[in-house]
Structures are given as structure tokens and as C-alpha cells.
Amino acid sequence: xxxxxxxxxxxxxxxxxxxxxxxxxxxxxxxxxxxxxxxxxxxxxxxxxxxxxxxxxxxxxxxxxxxxxxxxxxxxxxxxxxxxxxxxxxxxxxxxxxxxxxxxxxxxxxxxxxxxxxxxxxxxxxxxxxxxxxxxxxxxxxxxxxxxxxxxxxxxxxxxxxxxxxxxxxxxxxxxxxxxxxxxxxxxxxxxxxxxxxxxxxxxxxxxxxxxxxxxxxxxxxxxxxxxxxxxxxxxxxxxxxxxxxxxxxxxxxxxxxxxxxxxxxxxxxxxxxxxxxxxxxxxxxxxxxxxxxxxxxxxxxxxxxxxxxxxxxxxxxxxxxxxxxxxxxxxxxxxxxxxxxxxxxxxxxxxxxxxxxxxxxxxxxxxxxxxxxxxxxxxxxxxxxxxxxxxxxxxxxxxxxxxxxxxxxxxxxxxxxxxxxxxxxxxxxxxxxxxxxxxxxxxxxxxxxxxxxxxxxxxxxxxxxxxxxxxxxxxxxxxxxxxxxxxxxxxxxxxxxxxxxxx
Length: 504
Prior knowledge:
By secondary structure, this protein is an alpha+beta fold.
């Protein structure tokens, strides 16, 4: 009898496969990194074939660690780095170009051109999104305009587009031999091509961006009892398993945190930082610089929407300290280094490496370090890097409180950085609310498993999933209001120093 659900979590820096039991506990996992390709300043790419190879390796590895075979797996769910854009030949499976990663800035001129008629909010009423380099639609437009032969093949129906979820589903279900070209509503909502109300591609926006309709995948529910397709016996799972769960990574973490009621929120600390507030079946337009997006849709149930605050660089800043500046040898060392000082030494680090996302949406911003004196040492750099994550989260929470009209009383957190106790305590201090870490901190993969398991009846309903959630640790705010206000005020001042750095 099938007693496990598999989740493939394809992230910005790595891919992993996790197997979960009915209690929502991982019983097998393997994870592998892939290359970060930087062809020129501001450009970030991934090799889709390398990612597919890594996906196959981690599937095999997770099965081996759990001692499991295909017959033990009830369903497969996918979760993925959103907005990262792939185009490939449906007849050969060969990508036309490296994947253009969500933080890539090459589409700034396309975004500016589109904004000339209608401004930054030109498509916000339909999509819930401002015009920004972040989203897939402008990236796809860039590829169509710059990759020789792509537009011709796209108009013939031979070139396919998708985020990483679509690329993996297509390969898992057969690739050139009958692979299913599918995405879910959460990933589609990040393309700037889907209408939020209909949850279908918006013909007007597609025409404006000059994107051939034949390239676009079919949009399906995040957990689909009709299944997207089946894994192939010759594939890495070694048998036929329904592939029926698909969620963008941040929505998957929201499901993994069981934020199923309107007003519940979570914050994920990964390469970037992403806070999502469930708004139920209501589409809530943002007036404070947030995104209105799809939270999830299970089968024939109503679509659930959310407000999201997206921060581009948080964990990636720690990687930058490690890989570019060589201040640390491994990411966890940043906490030890930061603890060598009592405060940030008066410096503030605004990591606008790809511009600023929520709540500013400034493509012209670039990173700054302000307040430098001879007193500052590498411990202050480490401390300021961690504080940058907490301050950016405070900005998003303030915007979320303003849009929702409800002050958040506690924040559920997940992702790799939540094991940094210094950061989590500072986060609670800056927000002035408790910060709560669940027992299963890697909730992104769990959310994908929940979506797939729900579709096949492995879990009967969301209430059953809620019973699996358990608290691991809570950080209570300890800083006084005066200290909290002064640091945040200085941070806001530092942010203004990043504006207008890139000149058109």
C-alpha cells in the first residue's frame, strides 16, 4: 500500500526530493546544488538540463535513503522557484537558451517600454502585479526578441514556455514522448500573463507583449484529482505515479504552514524573503506596494488569493559574504561572526543587487552600505547583513498591515535562515510580535506534498493537515520601542540612498 508522498522542490540554488509520511514528517531526502551563471552584470541564468539531471539524481537518492520504491509513493508534487523562465523545443527537449532567473535584470528596458502607456500599474487590475523585471512575461518577451529562431518555432507550436514547474512536469511525464505541458494557478499568476479573476491567460496582455499563445501551458489547479499525468517507468521513480500537485515555492510554504484561514500569514527565509497573507476567496488590491496573487486552488474548490511581499535578497546576501567577499566559509558561520559584536557598528546594508522589490519596486536601485567608519569590522558586516533581512521584513509587514487593516499578532517562519537564532530574535524585536518556527521548517516541500496528497485522498482535508503542524520554537520580542524605532528609522534612510543609481 502506498504510504508516502513525494515532493520535488526546485529552488534557486538547489533541487531536492523529499518523501513524507501521513504525519507530514520527512522519511527520505536528497538535495543537490546547481550552477549560478552570471553572463554579465545583472544577468542570472540556470541550465535547465542541469536542473533536470539534478532532479533525477535527488529522486533516486531520496528513494534509496527511505528504502522506498514506486509502489510506496501515492502521488508526486512539484514546487519551484517562481518567475524563472524556460523555453524549449517540444520535439527534442532541448532548451533554446539558459533559464532566465527571477532576479535577472535584463528586461528593464522592456518593462520601461511597457510602462510608457499606462505606467507601472498598467496591468495591475488584471494581474495584481506591477510592471517589474521580476515576472516571467517580460522575460519571455526578451527571449522571443533575442534568441534566433525562437519566435518562428513558437508561432508553429514547436517551442514551449514554462516556469521550472512546467519544465519538470513535462520531463517527468514523458518529455518529447508525450510530456504534459501544464502549470498551476499559482505559477501562472507570477507570469503577468494570467487574469486573476478568470485564472486563465489574458488575451489582451498576451497580445500587448506579442507572445504566441501556442507557447503557453494549460493552467490547472494546484492540487488536481484529475492528475496532470503519470511518471514513466523508465524515469527516476521507476514506475507510474500520478503527478497531481504543483505550487510556486512561496505558496507551497503557505500550504505547508497550514495557513488555510484568511488572515493567516507566513514568512519564508531563503534566497529571498517572501511573506504571504491568506485573503480567502477575495481579491484584495494592494495600495501599499504588495502583490495580489493566487495562494492556492484545490480541485473544484474556490480559488484562494493572497497578498505577498517579495524581497529579492536575504539568504543570497549571506552567500555573497561567503562566495564574493570570503568573510565566511559556510553560511551558518555568519551567526558566529555576527555574535562577535554587540551591534551593527552604525552600518546599514541594503542589498538591492537586482533593484528593490516590495514595497518599493525600484528597478533603478542598487545595493549600498552606509555609515562606514574606521571602527567597523567584519563582525559588523555580518550583523548588518542579518539585520537587513529583518528590516526588509518589517517594511513588508507594515505594508501588509496597511492593506489588510489587521495587525499581525504573530509570524510563522520557515526556510533555511530560521535556524539562525540571532536573526530570529532580532526579527521578533524589530516586528514587536512573536516569531514562531514549526517542527518541520522546510515547509515548501511539505506544501507540495500536501497538494498532491490531497488530490489522491492521502490526506482527506485541510483539517487533517493542520493536525500535523507543530511548534518547534518561539522568539518573543525583547527590544524596547525606542531602540526598535531608531534602528528602523536609520534603515529607511539607508534605503533612500539606493534610489536612481541606474541611469536610463
